Amino acid sequence: MTDTPTHRNSAAEHPETSGELTGSELEDVVSRVLARARSRAEPVSTADAPAPAPRAGHDHLGRARELAAEEDVLGAADGEQRDLEERRALRRVAGLSTELEDVTEVEYRQLRLERVVLAGLYSSGTLADAENSLRELAALAETAGSEVMDGLLQRRVTPDPGTYLGSGKALELKDVVAATGADTVIVDAELAPSQRRALEDVVKVKVIDRTGLILDIFAQHAKSKEGKAQVELAQLEYMLPRLRGWGESLSRQAGGRAASGEGIGSRGPGETKIELDRRRIRQRMSKLRREIAAMKPARETKRLNRRRNAVPSVAIAGYTNAGKSSLLNRLTDAGVLVENALFATLDPTVRKAQTPDGIGYTLADTVGFVRSLPTQLVEAFRSTLEEVADSDVIVHVVDASHPDPEGQLKAVRDVLTDVGANDVPEIVALNKADIADPVVLARLRNREHPSVAVSARTGEGIEELRRLISAAIPRPDHELDLLIPYVHGEVVSRLHAQDAEILSTEHTPDGTRLHVRVREDLVGDLESYRTGSGTSETAAAQDPAGA
């Protein structure tokens, strides 16, 4: 078997249990998937080598569809990307092995990529939806640092309460694991602790679920102190009900003749070790919650300063790997990390931006979302996601080249509803328009209003997006006619720096006459310069420097 990952569909392999597919129907399914894959991949010459066998769900380069070549992702606006170089400094390498052929190799061995087999189950929806979900799981696995060897899909009315997949499919998965030499199985769902144990007993390798995989990626990519604390809290919440083991350090409770005839004197203190572990986890979780709460005032202070200065805020939200950081770099030259990976950036980044007519606002990049985002992460990152809920406008970034952009839109809006940001005005930015299907772009633009097709890589549509943001943010709404003496030129300078709209300027013998729109907090400070009040001329006459 080759190392190229595949997706096997149990409906095609077991027609007697899951609905029959004829040979021609199966060929149609495979050809449809391959056609979508080719639309995302660059042309590759096959003149000197035979064409590889078709593999459903992945492109002919053998990579998950969501992850393309790195040079296709970075653009001129992304800067030097030194953070990306640091992240890649200790990247594991495919093809290397930890097994030693000679004892002299012990000083030079390197870790190889973890080999994984994917397993998915779907009870509703279409085959294409299930394949998209499994492709996303493959991209998550690659981001976590593993090599996807194979994949299985099963259609089943309800998950099996024992092994999730059922005994027959679990045995088939065991054969696939043995044939590919995999050391991990990743299930595209959140498993109950009992299901995970039962499946491990059958396949004889480590089994993790989708939630555990996402938490692992977050643990790798968290950089700030607050981000690390939030990820650790989510991991502990996930780990607490999954502690297990009957090791020698545990003392199992026994009592009476019913306990294998041991009788009096055989009673131990119970599961002492596991209870101590649970207590330590709860104590650590309490400490992390206090630390995260203590970090909140610093963010609140920055937010209050922006509110006090009436600075509009715009939050960039969207599905993971949709291009949010690239768009932030294009709009503000922020130079934040851009990587072709899921959840590459977790810590929010806030930068100053400006509309075409000079109105300043803040632009905040937030953590990406994904289908079935673990509830532990939503709760742990709730303080960070408040940036979205408190913003004036949300720029919702969508990967228009993805096979299911509507699914991305729904997944993100579900999370926004959970954090109370569903009533914030929204602009849909259809990113990657340079490689998206024009029909899909037209369909999305007709459905979503307001929306704009952009490409963070080429700069297409960026100016139109700036105009939409300019029209959506709160604007100065108090219109004033001012006469400012020349000796008070600092007031004119302040108006130019204070996000005021200067509609007209006239230099007269008495001073600078301005017609402006300002925010409410500036009206009182400018009252003495309003024409018609007589105060401007009086101030000029009383000022000795103006004589």
TrEMBL record:
Region named Disordered: 1-60, 251-271, 527-547
Record flagged with keyword Transcription: no
Listed Pfam families: GTP-bdg_M, GTP-bdg_N, MMR_HSR1
GO cellular component: cytoplasm
Main location: cytoplasm
Polar residues bias (residue ranges): 530-539
InterPro entries: G_HFLX_dom, GTP-bd, GTP-bd_M, GTPase_HflX, GTPase_HflX_N, GTPase_HflX_N_sf, P-loop_NTPase
GO MF annotation list: GTP binding; GTPase activity; metal ion binding; ribosome binding
Location of the protein in the cell: Cytoplasm
Assigned keywords, A-Z: Cytoplasm, GTP-binding, Magnesium, Metal-binding, Nucleotide-binding
UniProt domain Hflx-type G: residue ranges: 312-476
CDD domains assigned: HflX
Similarity remark: Belongs to the TRAFAC class OBG-HflX-like GTPase superfamily. HflX GTPase family.
Subunit structure comment from the entry: Monomer. Associates with the 50S ribosomal subunit.
Function: GTPase that associates with the 50S ribosomal subunit and may have a role during protein synthesis or ribosome biogenesis.
UniProt-recorded name of the protein: GTPase HflX
Species, as recorded: Kocuria tytonis
Gene name, Swiss-Prot/TrEMBL: hflX
